[in-house]
Amino acid sequence: MNRKLLMHVGPTIIDMDVLLAGVRNNTGFASPEFIPAMKNSLDGLKYVMNAKNYQPFILPGSGTLGMESMTSLLKKNDNVLVISSGVFGDRWKAIFNKYEVNCTLLRSEPGKIVSEDRIMEELDKKHYKMVTMTQVETSTGVRFPVKEIAKKIRDKTDLIVVDAVASAGAEELNVHDWDIDVCLTASQKALATPPGASLLVLSENALSYLSDDSLSGFYTDLNQWKNIMNNFESNKSGYYTTLPVHLIFSLEKSFDLIKEETMENRIKRHKIVSGAIRSGLNAMDMDIMAYEKYYSNTVTAMMLNNINMNEFLNYCLNNGIEMATGIIPEYAGKYIRIGHMGWINENDAISTIAVIERALNKFGKKIKYGTGITAAQEYIEDFK
Ligand SMILES: Cc1ncc(COP(=O)(O)O)c(C=O)c1O
Fold first, then answer.
1. Residue 106 and residue 134 in one domain
2. Percent of the chain with pLDDT over 70
3. What was the pLDDT predicted at 384?
4. Pairing between strand 142-143 and 157-163?
5. pTM above 0.90, yes or no
6. How many domains are there within the chain?
């Protein structure tokens, strides 16, 4: 099979025009043509996150770099509360354990979220300078109610930080109206560009915590990076470390396409595709890890009920659909993850369900052909 469809949780399918935009020679970080590409990309990031008056950053690195850069807002012995629905929520704790901060982890069972009561109870115990949350937990496909929880905790903490690595560009995200201090993402997920850029926005409040005596290391120091970003926003170049120049031309193109589609339509498209996939799985009696109220637009975790994960994924790959392994320790090897973000469309949902239907039959779960596809088709039809 030489043609396949990437239904992975990132990197995702990349539009050819986006890829080609990055194919350049004779271009460096100080080249005149790079300056507007960077400026437009910073602007595009603000559009996707509804971050009107925020300071945008695009850094060479991945999503984890953006997470670690939060040490730029912290000082020794600060209290940080991490609200986690899975592996990537837990990563915050692993990062902060490397620094001299007091980090408390609240973790849900896979498929659920930490309850509002548990969060409020913890915030009543002591003052937390920073609270982190993950909008879509990629290990479980769970969407956390960022808007609602941010509103509840706003007066109880100084800094609300949202990991939108697996959601920005596909889920409703309005950092300005929701009063979020920091929102971060990465290039390879719903923004659908190659990996290599870490993108984040900081509110005015968050900027006021940047200092030269923060806990951050050299590379992640947003207090330094801020000056470089300001330069590009004022049509000047700048250097702190080398920016991923070619990737930023791709990002600029991707943001152009996103603006053309509009975030409203983009979110709707993701809703239809993810809903069609889940309808197909439900019709085939396959369990989804996330509880229904936490379904996300971008990731679906499907339980395998004793089918071998690697064999299942290999069969699907050999039949043209590449999906991701299940990684949450509690259920490692017992589920797969279907990524549906970026440039996915309705036909991709149908193809994915068709191959899953065949794979389930192959591995002993007898399903009448067409069961999943019919449900997915009907979902798409009903949505419109
Ligand atoms: C929700 C979430 N946060 C953080 C990360 C880490 O991003 P990266 O792998 O780009 O460092 C990921 C990666 O999959 C993620 O899904």
1. yes
2. 100
3. 79
4. unpaired
5. yes
6. 2
Domain that residue 305 falls in: 5-11+263-383
Ligand 1 center–CA 65 separation, angstroms: 9
* Residue 244 structure tokens: 């991923």
**Is 144 in contact with 134 (CB distance < 8 Å)?**
yes
133-164 burial, b for 16+ CB within 10 Å, e for fewer? bbbbbbbbbbbbebeebbeebeebbbbbbbbb
Q: Are 70 and 169 contained in the same domain?
A: yes
Cα of 166 to ligand 1 centre, how many Å?
7
State which of 58, 135, 138 you would mutate to test the pocket of ligand 1, scoring each by most atoms of that ligand within 8 A of its C-beta. Answer: 138
Using most ligand atoms within 8 A of CB, pick from 70, 83, 88, 92 the residue to mutate for ligand 1.
88
> What is the signed CA dihedral for 6, 9, 15, 21, rounded to 10 degrees?
-130
Strands 79-84 and 102-107: parallel
Q: Which atom of ligand 1 is nearest to the CA of 164?
A: 1
